[in-house]
Amino acid sequence: MLLSLIIPVYRVEKYIQTCLNSVLSQLPAHGVEVIIVNDGTPDHSMAMAEALIADYPHLAEHIVCLHQDNQGLSAARNTGIEQARGQYLAFLDSDDTLKEDYIAQILKVLQQHPHLDLIQFRAERINDEGDTSPFLSALPYSGLKLLNSDILLDIFNRSAWFSWLRVYHKDLFATLRFPVGRNYEDAYTTPFLFLKSKSIYFIDDVLLQYRINHTGITATKSTKNIDDLGQGALHYLDYVEQYPLFTPTLMAISQSYINDSLRAEGYAKAQQRWDTLKQHIQQKKIQEDLILNRGNRLFYRFGLKFLLADRMLRQLGLKK
After folding, report:
1. Alpha helices, DSSP H only, in the chain?
2. 84 and 170 in contact (C-beta within 8 Å)?
3. Which of 32, 83, 178, 259 could lock 74 by a disulfide, CB 3.0 to 4.6 Å apart?
4. Is the dihedral of CA 94, 221, 40, 164 positive or negative?
5. Whole-angstrom Cα distance, residue 139 to residue 204?
6. How many domains does the chain fold into?
7. One domain for residues 86 and 137
8. SS3 state of residue 286
9. What's the pLDDT tens digit per position in 83-107?
10. Is residue 53 part of a domain?
């Protein structure tokens, strides 16, 4: 088994059939398994998934359905990791879809480069009307690369830690799992997978469609979501002196954390959160020169003053 594709399922009646059709319609006769993890969904999502799977009887031995009590996205992914037989792992959220040549392109790369650590590709947004739009700027790399300091610095500055944006050698997860009970779980895990990797293959094609889902787990700026972002920043702080590369991604997640608080909780609470976080940051040796993103650098220097100035410029139409 070369590749295991892990799909957690929870409250996705609206999307599950589109998601699975995009996978099963291109599933080859061998080499790939699909692991569907029912995370205790209370609706008919899993029943709909099983009914759709019945339409693909020739693929039955390549589809694994697992059931567990609801524990969250991280726990569902972890269950899939533990049961996966593939040499490589991929993740797909059950409201997203694969482009029609995803599996063919991934398998081609894996067969040509059998000792690869990572594959990274491009994605696009899609809404419920089927309209698509660009998502994330293209990286200036293609093909097989060693993960040198320049590439890693670029990736850590972009901080696009979505687990579904890449394919991973399973050995990278030997001592890593997604944090159970936390939202934004990718940000807690994916950077460490990069630190353990030596090689990566960049595919300059869109292979996945990321759903704009306004009812998704992290779409609302709840107190838990804001708190989990803040915990992510503190998590990076624990490693920033050992791994200075965490500096730019620390500032990216810190800015998101404080900006979400400003929008949802108001200035006073956001300032309180920033004062607390800044005290922790000031206790560490931060290498500011590693922060290549101008907005993150300005946030590091000026905190809420930068966020308020940025908001004003956007309201005046002076900044896109």
Report:
1. 16-24, 45-53, 73-83, 102-112, 149-158, 185-195, 223-237, 246-265, 267-282, 294-302, 304-315
2. yes
3. 178
4. positive
5. 8
6. 2
7. yes
8. coil
9. 999 999 999 999 999 999 999 999 9
10. yes
**Distance from C-alpha of 313 to C-alpha of 307, rounded to nearest angstrom:** 10
Residue 89 counted as domain residue: yes
CATH of the domain at 39: 3.90.550.10
pLDDT digits (tens, 9 = 90+) for 269-307: 999 999 999 999 999 999 999 999 999 999 999 999 999
3-state helix, strand, coil in the chain (%, to 5): 45, 20, 35
Pairing mode, strands 63-68 and 32-39: parallel
Report yes or no on whether pTM surpasses 0.85: yes
Which residue is listed with tokens 């500055």? 157
Distance, in Å, from the CA atom of 49 to the CA atom of 214, rounded to the nearest integer, reads 22
Q: For residues 145 and 199, is the Cβ–Cβ distance under 8 A?
A: yes
Domain hosting residue 122, numbered range: 3-211
